[in-house]
Amino acid sequence: MISMSEPASERNYSKPPGIRLLEYIKKSPLSYKTHQAIVLIVTFLAYASYHAARKTTSVVKSTLDPESSDVSLKFFPWRMTYLSEPAEGRRLSRILGDGWAPFNGSDGTALLGEVDLGFLAVYAIGMYFSGHLGDRTNLRIFLTIGMVGAGVFTSLFGIGYWANIHTFYYFLGVQMLAGLFQSTGWPSVVAVVGNWFGKKKRGLIMGIWNAHTSVGNITGSLVASALLTYGWGWSFVVPGLIIATVGVLVFLFLPVSPDSVGAEEDELDSPKKCGAAGVTEPLLEPEVKVKESAVGFLEAWKIPGVAPFALCLFFSKLVAYTFLYWLPFYISHTAIDGKYLSSEASGNLSTLFDVGGVLGGILAGHISDRLDARAITAASFMYCAIPALFFYRSYGHVSMAVNIALMFITGMFVNGPYALITTAVSADLGTHSSLRGNSRALATVTAIIDGTGSVGAAIGPLLTGYISAKSWSGVFTMLMVAALIAGLLLTRLVVAEVGAKIEESRSRSASRSQPTVIDV
């Protein structure tokens, strides 16, 4: 960071236009805390809008494919089944509840699963490149381009409604391009937040901040459900416009780092203080004299803890994204207390899973801060998710109250470790001691962890599209096995953390038992 003694004329700041306007109105520079507040608010809104745009597909599925009960598990790819279907058999009705070709055919559920795969596969691949580019470009500009692009292609999916498009390739292609632009989001927002906040209470702060995922899912579900009666196209266009608008807000107001805006830390509130009791570990080293080079992809993989957490997130996101993309569909096709809910009601009810996810993310962050044990916390939540999944599948149909309670609990345990790993853990590993203070690894490490997780996120919804055609119990078995594997992958780190805790406890006991020598 530039020292106070350096002449102002030599400072090369790139303040966003909105920050300059606020300082002009205030007639003085914004404080460090004010910048931090702006970062949290803007990045929260940004990624909430990403998830709101992403959530719409799950709500609209039961409208595009209302007769999934007739779906059988096909052994032929969609290209053969759809193209070989007689023209008169391809229903092109615009009536709500009559479905939308090509998704209302006998293989509609499988086709929807492949659309999800297209989006998430490109999203996962793009994530790796986005992290690489994010550490080398202006994150504010990079994030703005991603959000506007995601908004355009999300809207184009909905425009297919008014353009009367029934070509599978159109919907697949648009979703793949939307996935590419969506991949710019997570590495960018985590890197920006990591630039402004130190490690102390990082788990709690990021656990609360990570509520944007669930808030976005809830918003997307409510908006998409409310607009279904006006035509399913609106359920895509409106979220697309929202994310593009927030993208403009990011361009105007997001300060990427303290260095970029010349923000000086307050003496008492700095997260980078050193040399005092209760001092926090600095997230980034501001006084580095040598120009830093971005960390390479393979080098980032070698950082201790990156590989096991990345693989854990593979299975964790497989579970979380299966719920993200299929929960409203599952609810609408499962009798609760002997009654089936409409697509709109199912979308609204599914938001309670994300409400539980908000609490889960905050609890996981807070617990991991108190215990100083990220792996123990994440593994414990994944193991608790297994019985939660079992009980939701087995007893969720008994009554609405039981369904709501079990859905909330399941969301808490499923989203807790997912939120912890993608935020606090990624930030911890992106500033690992092995990097020797290099601050240009955060986006790359975040991209590796979340990119690997996104591969699982692509596989889960795809498999669900096929397995659900035979049995939803098979889907839940798959999810429980995935949760078990996710927990087991952290075993080595859990053992290391437990060993460290035991050693720390012994050291404290030894220090207390030593006699105190008083000099006379």
The helical percent reads: 55-70%
The overall pLDDT average reads 80
Number of strands: 0
Radius of gyration: 24 Å
Shape: globular
In DSSP terms (H or I, runs of 4 or more residues), the helix count works out at 20
Unreliably modeled segments: 1-12, 68-96, 267-291
Structural class: mainly alpha
Give a quick account of the main beta sheet: strands, pairing sense, barrel closure: none
Cα end-to-end separation:
49 Å
N-to-C series of helices and strands: HHHHHHHHHHHHHHHHHHHH
Protein name: Glycerol-3-phosphate transporter 1
Subcellular location: Membrane
Pfam family, one: MFS_1
Family: Belongs to the major facilitator superfamily. Organophosphate:Pi antiporter (OPA) (TC 2.A.1.4) family.
List the helices and strands and how they pair.
Blueprint: H1 17-26, H2 32-64, H3 78-83, H4 108-134, H5 139-162, H6 168-182, H7 185-196, H8 202-209, H9 211-227, H10 234-253, H11 258-261, H12 297-301, H13 306-332, H14 343-349, H15 351-371, H16 374-395, H17 400-430, H18 442-467, H19 472-488, H20 491-513
Helix pairs in contact: 2-5, 2-7, 2-9, 2-10, 2-13, 2-14, 4-6, 4-7, 4-18, 5-6, 5-7, 5-10, 7-18, 8-15, 8-17, 9-10, 9-14, 9-15, 13-14, 13-17, 13-18, 13-19, 15-16, 15-17, 16-17, 16-19, 17-18, 18-19
Family: Belongs to the major facilitator superfamily. Organophosphate:Pi antiporter (OPA) (TC 2.A.1.4) family.
Pfam families: MFS_1
Keywords: Membrane, Sugar transport, Transmembrane, Transmembrane helix, Transport
